[in-house]
DNA sequence: AAAATATGCAACCGCCACTGC
DNA sequence: CGCAGTGGCGGTTGCATATTT
């Protein structure tokens, strides 16, 4: 059995994953197996969900999205995946959790640089989030039918549209 | 032009929840 | 009920590229 490949994906691998996804759907284990074990199921899933899925919106984040994300983070905490699923544009294209997470981090970094005096205040704001109970379980997932399935600790799931108002 | 530093993106890692046995 | 396998997630890290010195 070949050893697990690491690092960046080639165009050939991407194409293969896309083809296999058509046949196997979200059976990542099956897709990984069909790739002769070169990548494991977690790598395959990550690659597809974050980059290859045709419904991904690859445009830059708008000001509205940035505002919504900042607001969302204050209220719900770092639930990037939930935010990403709700952040669909008019054409139905969505953001990925990775995009949201990276965007938030770099935005936060920029702001930290701009106002180096205020990191403590920012942290305090995070601690005051009413519905945030820490990392564990503070997210939701989807069942096989794609329905949103709360993991138990989310007290409220606001529609992202409301955040934009 | 070269070196140093900053920035952004993508992949890795470990944990948690769900499911089936 | 307990366990193993799998999927999903957020945090962290590393690399490539851009910018600054």
Automatic annotation (TrEMBL):
Which Gene3D superfamilies does the UniProt entry name for this protein?
Homeodomain-like
Cross-referenced SMART domains: SANT (SM00717)
- From the UniProt record, which GO molecular function terms apply? DNA-binding transcription factor activity, RNA polymerase II-specific; RNA polymerase II cis-regulatory region sequence-specific DNA binding
Q: Which GO terms describe its cellular component?
A: nucleus
Q: What is this protein called?
A: 2220_t:CDS:1
Ranges for domain Myb-like come to 1-52
Signal sequence range: none
> What top-level branch of life does the organism fall under?
Eukaryota
Region (Disordered) residue ranges read 110-152
Species whose genome carries this gene: Paraglomus brasilianum
Q: Which residues form the HTH myb-type domain?
A: 1-56
One Pfam family assigned to this protein is Myb_DNA-bind_6
